[in-house]
Amino acid sequence: MGKKGHWLFIFIILLTALIMTPSSSKLFAKKVLRIGVINFITHPALDACQKGFMDQMAQEGYIDGKTVQYDISNAEGDMSVVASIAKKFVSQKKDLIFSITTPCTQAVAAATKGTGIPVIFGAMTDPVAAKVAESWERPGGNVTGCSDWMDVGAQVKVVKEIVPGVKVLGTIYNAGEVNSRVQIAELKKAAPGLGIKKIVEVNAASSADVLAAAKSLMGRVDAVWFPTDNIVTSALEALVKVCEDNKVPLFGSDVNQVKRGVIASCGIDFYELGKEAGKMAKQVLDGRNPAEMPIKKGKMGDLWVNPSAAKRMGITIPQAVMAKATKVINK
How far apart (Å, rounded) are the C-alpha atoms in residues 162 and 157? Predict the structure, then answer.
């Protein structure tokens, strides 16, 4: 063996030894991404959005505990906790943050400003009004995602189809949520054209306020509709009970609410919304700039009805509405 061959042989032996040592093997291991997931409060729609996101990420090759490590945090409606979680994710230098709801996205957008950490949101109604994006077509910063924007006019039309005599419509929402204020503004625009003469609004600043707010509407309204409000949805059972006891029809803004006792709702599938957010996250992790990624909207189309809930509130769902329902819940 010549001198050149001798040194090549030694180099190969040393390289093999280096690769085989436990400490050095980490150098050749694929990076495990760290993704922070922040949710505002526990309720089925938001949980479905989170599950859809994680399921889609798994389909894209990001396997929990193998190629990605999730840090999942839920503030349970406490804005001070939301801010703390957002700051924690930034200090830990997450590779990406998935934020669910408007309050969470606003907090994360503020915390990540100037850090370069990309943020994908789900279940946020109006990112422009919430001031986390410059426009729907070009967000312009580090935040983009999938909106749960609903056609409020279509939802109120369902109310009128089931209870044609509604003239005064009550609504409950947390005035502190931008997403809810946007939907109430849309409600006021749509109502006159559908023959609704008056909207009666009551505020519920916390889950504990929902029961009293619901009771305050009784005797003043013909029916109740509420937006995709995180506070109200988290305490929906209290609202349902009051409407049942007083035989006042209750309508929602999310199809999953029908499972919990609302008479009917048309809306989007939050699980599918989460999956779309997962697809966007994959694009960002592949190098696409979130500033240039148009914000997507969930697709309206599903109409869920609950004849049993209608009966408990003193009405019957017309056959014409039953015929076009995409899902019938009897519970």
Answer: 9
Residue whose C-alpha is closest to residue 79's, from 53, 108, 112, 51: 108
Both 159 and 233 in one domain: the answer is yes
Q: Strand 302-305 vs strand 264-267: parallel, antiparallel, or unpaired?
A: antiparallel
In a domain, 232, yes or no: yes
CATH no. for residue 234?
3.40.50.2300
In sequence order, the 6+-apart residues with CB closer than 8 A to the CB of 246 are: 218, 219
- 306 and 188 share one domain: yes
d(CA 262, CA 298): 21
Separation between Cα atoms, residue 101 and residue 107, nearest integer Å: 10
**Together in a domain, 248 and 132:** no
Number of domains in the chain: 2
Domain annotation covers residue 14? no
As a residue count, the chain comes to: 331
pLDDT digits over 165-203, tens only?
999 999 999 999 999 999 999 999 999 999 999 999 999
Is residue 188 domain-resident? Answer: yes
Q: How far apart are alpha carbons 193 and 222 in whole angstroms?
A: 17
Neighbours of 272 (CB within 10 A): 17
CA distances from 56 to 65, 75, 169, 222 (A): 15, 23, 39, 42
Each residue of 294-314: pLDDT tens digit? 999 998 878 999 999 999 999
Tokens for 42? 């526990």
Q: Residue 31 has what DSSP assignment?
A: P
Contact 224, 239 (CB under 8 A): yes
Query: Is residue 165 included in any domain, yes or no?
Result: yes
The rounded distance, in Å, linking the Cα atoms of 98 and 88 is 14
Taking the model in full, what pTM does it have?
A: 0.80
Q: Which residues pair with 267 in a beta bridge?
A: 302
